[in-house]
Specification:
Oligomer: single chain
Catalytic activity: gamma-L-glutamyl-hercynylcysteine S-oxide + H2O = S-(hercyn-2-yl)-L-cysteine S-oxide + L-glutamate
Low-confidence stretches: none
Pathway: Amino-acid biosynthesis; ergothioneine biosynthesis
Number of helices: 7
CATH topology: Glutamine Phosphoribosylpyrophosphate, subunit 1, domain 1
Strand order of the largest sheet: 3-2-4-1-10-9-11
InterPro entries: EgtC, EgtC-like, EgtC_Actinobacteria, Gamma-glu_amide_hydrolase, GATase_2_dom, Ntn_hydrolases_N
Function: Catalyzes the hydrolysis of the gamma-glutamyl amide bond of hercynyl-gamma-L-glutamyl-L-cysteine sulfoxide to produce hercynylcysteine sulfoxide, a step in the biosynthesis pathway of ergothioneine.
Number of domains: 1
Largest sheet: 7 strands, antiparallel
Helix content: 10-25%
Radius of gyration: 16 Å
Organism: Streptomyces johnsoniae
Number of strands: 13
CATH architecture: 4-Layer Sandwich
Structural class: alpha+beta
CATH superfamily: Aminohydrolase, N-terminal nucleophile (Ntn) domain
Distance between the termini: 22 Å
Shape: globular
Length: 241
């Protein structure tokens, strides 16, 4: 399984989100399971409200000598990051690493979809030639992102877009694992369907959503299976999918 997280709160060095915590995403890349097929981080620079900016690699996060220095100096109040364990049959280039992007949206998928190549036909949602050619990579995650992006572009709110993707995909692939994570730099939408998902609030202005909690750190709440999480800097709502 992959691992991912999203953070909203006061601007801080990326290192405080990615590498410094004792059970950081960096550490989760090798324990408790190995996620060595790439990584990525997307953030929204606080200086000018621009973004998102992405840094993605097709190497294990621990082997990138540039990341520690970058994470120490780059700051943001909105971050989405992931480490990847590739689904068999998917591509291994850096474009296959989350986060995927569209406009101000960043997206990640933790899980796997069996026979994902046939998913559009099996869900009755064939992609156009332009959408297929526009896929970031040959992977289940990139395909789910294309389906999600279609809904966001049509004006569906982020929570509804993710919930609809989970329901549609699970109906065609009951054994699919579909933990999805989406942010526009102001809000976070996430689903738990098949793998674990947790969130933590701090100081009423900060929220972190992650695959796993930090052991021994207070304030983490587990999201129930088959649920949708909607979070802002000061609000959190969990509801059934």
């Amino acid at each position: 399984m992959c691992r991912h997280l999203a953070y909203l709160g006061p601007a801080r060095p990326l290192a405080e989100v990615l590498t410094d915590p004792p059970h950081s995403l960096y550490r989760q890349s090798w324990t408790p399971s190995v996620n060595a097929d790439g990584f990525g981080v997307g953030w929204y620079p606080p200086e000018n409200g621009a973004g998102p900016v992405r840094y993605r690699r097709a190497v294990p996060i621990w082997s990138d000598a540039n990341l520690p220095g970058l994470a120490a100096v780059l700051r943001s109040g909105a971050v989405l990051a992931a480490v990847r364990s590739a689904t068999p049959g998917t591509s291994h280039d850096e474009a296959a690493s989350a986060p995927f992007a569209l406009g101000r949206w960043l997206f990640s998928h933790n899980g796997a979809v069996p026979r994902w190549e046939l998913l559009p036909a099996d869900t009755g949602e064939p992609l156009t030639a332009a959408e297929l050619l526009g896929l970031d990579a040959r992977s289940d995650s990139a395909l789910l992102w294309a389906m999600t992006g279609r809904r966001l572009t049509a004006g569906l709110p982020p929570g509804e877009a993710l919930a609809d993707i989970v329901r549609t995909t699970a109906a065609a692939r009951p054994d699919a694992r579909l933990n999805l994570l989406l942010t526009d730099g102001s809000t976070i939408a996430a689903t738990r369907h098949g793998d674990t998902l947790w969130y933590r609030r701090r100081d009423e202005t900060e929220v972190t959503v992650a695959s796993s909690p930090v052991p021994g750190e207070r304030g983490w709440h587990e999201v129930p299976e088959h649920s949708l999480l909607l979070a802002g800097r000061t609000t959190t709502d969990v509801e059934p999918l």
